[in-house]
Design brief:
The chain has 530 residues and is mainly α. The chain is 82% helix and 0% strand. Helix 4 runs antiparallel to helix 7, helix 11 runs parallel beside helix 13 and helix 12 runs antiparallel to helix 18. It is globular. The two termini are 23 Å apart.
Length: 530
Amino acid sequence: MTTCSEDKTTSVLKAAWLIAIVTIFSKLIGFIRDVIIAKYYGTSLVSDAYFYAYQIPALSIILLGGVGGPFHSATVAVFSKLIPNLREKPADEVRKLFSTFMTTTILFFTVLAVICYFFAHPIMSVIASGGSAELVNLAAEHLKIMSPVLIIGGIVGIYYGILVTYRYFMLPNLSPIIMSLVIIAMVVTAKSDNAGVILAWATTIGAVCQFILQYPKVRQLGFKFVPNLDVLNNVQFKNICELLFPAVLSSTVGQIHIYVDMFFASSLKEGVWTAIGYANRVFQFPVGILVTAFLVPLFPIFSRLVADNDMQGIKNYFNKGVGVLFFGAIPIIIGILVLGFDGIRLIFERGAFDERATYMVTEALWFLSFSIIPYVFRDSITRVYYSFNDSATPFVIAFSSIVLKVFMNIILINVLHMGIGGITLSTSLVTLFNACMLGILISKKIKLDYGILFKNLFKMCIAGFIVFVICTVAGNIFDLFVVLPKYVFEITKIAIVGAICLITYIWLNLLLKMDYAIELFDRVRAKICK
């Protein structure tokens, strides 16, 4: 007889696979967008100006309002406990809470948008203080155009939370495709855009389209926005604020880390910040798929298990989810280190994006890859904190790491002169610090079983090191003896060495009797037999 736990596990895995497929499609469209931007703007002053300015609206549309962001997470954590039957329309008090949350969010982000519009130049003067006057002026112009994105981000974040609470996982994960498609269409059709303002306009229009995509389904579920400010003596709104404010501050602190990097990058050569941005996008393609696919369906389950006081259930799901993320993360690291340069050449090197830009992005990506293991652990355990309505602890840890970030940048960039690699290496070290502190302090709420988790990680690392050596040798042999046209060479090398990596990695994990490898092997074999 199938147990309830088994049913939940099956539904999580099915949801994870569906989300992974949608996320892969979304990331592919995002990659096409980045390739087109790189082709037309390369790693230049214009692209630097856009990406410097974009970091501020990105705080709203991606970090705060994106899938997994504070507004999405707070909505899921609170509303999933207030809606016991997902097949019924929400109660009046739930709809009222939704309207209150929406009203306060719109007011808050409107104030931020107005500030960014009227004080764009002073803001960019501080962030890019090491850059030229031309860079600052152009970045300020871009920021003015993109300031409305701040308002849209918070709204979309709440919509994402409502949809995920009702188990509509696809729509939130499809939404980012809209912005990418708008940017692609506008950049390709623009006849003359030496200042790059078309990028800023496309970003703003794309954000509006994201809102339009979510609205009908949220309205259909029974959530109609009626402005009100019923914030006094409202227990549930207080619960949202207790979870949301520290989480917003925590994400904002994370953005401060980015502003610190922007400050240091502006004093380096032209195109450094653009190169770091592309490295982050390549990094987020596989890692984002992993994290989104598993944590989006797991987070509502964590919240319900906390509400049911099922501590053992949380331990089981946490170990299973993080273990799978670790299992998938190691071959990603190997792929970046062995094939990163070839991948960047294949994806970006055309038009204004030259070989110099390829080396810059690859260097940034190599050092960033070391953060993958702590990254997936940090994001996973943060969801456990949120399930306990505790976003204060992640905030305190993130805030305390600002000093570490500045210190590491000074040492790696100003003292050791590592340049672009120093910026991304400091990011990896800070991510490791945050993950360790979160893992230690969670013991105040629940005793997670790290013994089994990290024992398995150790075995996976042994297999990963062997695979890394084999793939490095295979890649060098390919470089020495294979002569093919440029793009054919890159595709063939990535396909062959990548296949060697995956097959050898899974085989070694099967020898080590890793549950994740055995389960994957059994599932693939069952599909083939079927």
